[in-house]
Amino acid sequence: MKALQDAKISIVGLGLMGGSLAGALRGQCRCVVGVDRNPQALEIGQSRALIDRGSEDLAVGVRGADIVVLSTPVRTILRLLDEIAPLLRPGCLLLDLGSTKTQIVAKMAGLPAHIEPLGGHPMCGKEKSGIESAEATLYRERTFILCPLPRTSPEALAQGQALVKAVGAQPLVLEAARQDFLAGTVSHLPYMLACALISTADATTSADPAVWEIVAGGFRDTSRVSAGNVSMWMDILLTNREEVLRAVATYQAQLAHLAGLLEKGDTTGLQKTLETIREKRLEMFP
Amino acid sequence: MKALQDAKISIVGLGLMGGSLAGALRGQCRCVVGVDRNPQALEIGQSRALIDRGSEDLAVGVRGADIVVLSTPVRTILRLLDEIAPLLRPGCLLLDLGSTKTQIVAKMAGLPAHIEPLGGHPMCGKEKSGIESAEATLYRERTFILCPLPRTSPEALAQGQALVKAVGAQPLVLEAARQDFLAGTVSHLPYMLACALISTADATTSADPAVWEIVAGGFRDTSRVSAGNVSMWMDILLTNREEVLRAVATYQAQLAHLAGLLEKGDTTGLQKTLETIREKRLEMFP
Questions:
Q1: A125 torsion bin: left (phi>0), alpha (psi -120 to 50), beta (else)
Q2: Cβ neighbour number for residue A110 with a 10 Å cutoff
Q3: Which ipTM was obtained for this model?
Q4: Cys staple from A42: which of A12, A54, A151, B105, with CB 3.0 to 4.6 Å?
Q5: How far is B243 from chain A (nearest CA, A)?
Q6: Cβ contact (<8 Å) for A285 and B220?
Q7: Mean per-residue pLDDT, A123-148
Q8: How far is residue A234's CA from residue B275's CA, in Å, rounded to a whole number?
Q9: How many C-beta atoms surround the C-beta of residue B207 within 10 A?
């Protein structure tokens, strides 16, 4: 496998994540090619110097690439895996940035033998999507999960880790099912909760105009992630359905327990529970 | 009633809220007296020039005051209303800063006729409590709810509004039950949700050390308010129990609805719902 500095890297999907990755890789490899069906994204990528060149055509864009990074929503990645294989040169590292990994890694297992597949999930993002919001610093000091397959060679994994370090992130090798279980609770569940909070307020208090004057930081923060990109979240929820539903069920039980203590007037039990929760939160985010 | 600049103001409870109010009022009235059982809070109040003088004794501290502000947790306010009445001069404005209003205003209705009661709830705060965290700017540009009673004179309400404006806040006159209904959903419900998220993570994913490396902004923001002061929250939940329980019940139904769409695989319904929610959130916080 080529050293990163000699590699030609093609990034398929020039949105927030792909554009930021391109910008962070530029100058650290032979060249960065952006691939996107939207010519405007390519124009922005070039005018902001995030890519060396761009192509609207997948076959042209990934031709001769040493590393191809799929940075589209998860269900598009799943579709791309079907069509991209014949376009790749032997030994090409095929990395993706999808937020859920079980389905992608399962599909990667069926790729032709000349490709080196590697699942990836960088733990960063922004509320605003699109290459307009891309920043070469987006990945810095963030965890970047890598899910190698049994067929992934040690050299390919090492190349993937070199790429992750080159953009300033910390690689964390994790099994796909374990990443989806963890992400289901710490990332996908908060999105469901934020959405349900907005719909609750909408169904009740929103009818009162005074509510806009008393909404404070707690509501704003607790509901923040509900403003995220819906297509991206649809992909995440649908490709991690079992884990998300399991997390929601556990959550409903925990919330019902808290409400039950309040309903019964069990002040000692409620206080003890809230204090334990507060301590856990402070341990998590000191 | 005296103009604010001629008034002697006593603030009972020199924590974050009381200390910040004192600092914002100082120089805009005749004098600010801090009252707290903890001599250290009084020392900090004086060394940081938030108060003109302090007293550990309630009777001494409120003697001759034109305005008394109760800035303790709600259940302490309820207790103080029993003992403070005989200590106040005729025509004294008695304002509180409690986060729930129905129970306080109901109790204020029974105060002797020589007192002018007025419920209050400033929509501001900080994660860190205590006078150490006090800032004279805390109230600036925030909404400050006022709940006058039928017995509150127009002059007393005007004086309360003058005080609110003096600290840089915007007064909003609201009926106590309406404020508690709204706060139940936009303030107290988010606290319950944040707590249940922490206890869910604690019951499931926390056993895996990798979880600490993948926790991202969504989890942090959605759980932030669970780190708040437990005594304060106990008071809020216990004195707004009905509204909080009602809000939790509505929330559980909304969350179950979202999870149901995902479970059934109703992608059209789910996408439409999430898009509506996203639009509402962007309307609320443009």
A1: left
A2: 10
A3: 0.88
A4: A54
A5: 11
A6: yes
A7: 92
A8: 10
A9: 8
User: CB distance from A177 to chain B under 8 Å?
Assistant: no
**Environment class of B154 (CB within 10 Å of its CB; exposed 0-12, middle 13-18, buried 19+):** exposed
The residues in B 142-161 lying below 8 A from A, measured between CB atoms, are: 143, 145
DSSP codes, B63-86? TT-SEEEE-S-HHHHHHHHHHHGG
Cβ contact, residue pair A222, B226, below 8 Å: no
Q: What is the spatial distance between Cα B8 and Cα B203, in angstroms, rounded to a whole number?
A: 52
Distance of alpha carbon A163 from alpha carbon A173, whole angstroms: 14
In angstroms, the separation between the Cα of residue A274 and the nearest Cα of chain B is 7
The identity of residue B253, as a single letter, is: A
Return the residue matching tokens 């409590």.
Answer: B129
- A42 with A14: CB under 8 angstroms? yes
Contact A215 B262 (CB under 8 A): no
Alpha-carbon span A78 to A238, nearest angstrom: 12
Interface test with A, best of B101, B223, B241, B266 (most A CBs within 10 A): B223
Residue keyed to tokens 């060149």: A53
- How many whole angstroms separate alpha carbon A275 and alpha carbon A28? 49
Partner A contacted by B254 (CB < 8 A)? yes
Q: Which two tokens stand for residue A210?
A: 């005074």
A28-62 pLDDT, tens per residue? 999 999 999 999 999 999 999 999 999 999 999 99
Q: Among all residues of chain A, which has the CA nearest to that of B260?
A: A245
Amino acid at B17: M
Which residues in A17-62 belong to E strands, given as ranges?
31-35, 53-55
Per-residue pLDDT tens digits for B201-247: 999 988 888 888 888 788 999 999 999 989 989 999 999 999 999 99
Of B199, B241, B249, the CB nearest to A277: B199
pLDDT bin (cut points 50, 70, 90) of residue B64 is very high
The pTM of the full predicted model, rounded to 2 decimals, is 0.88
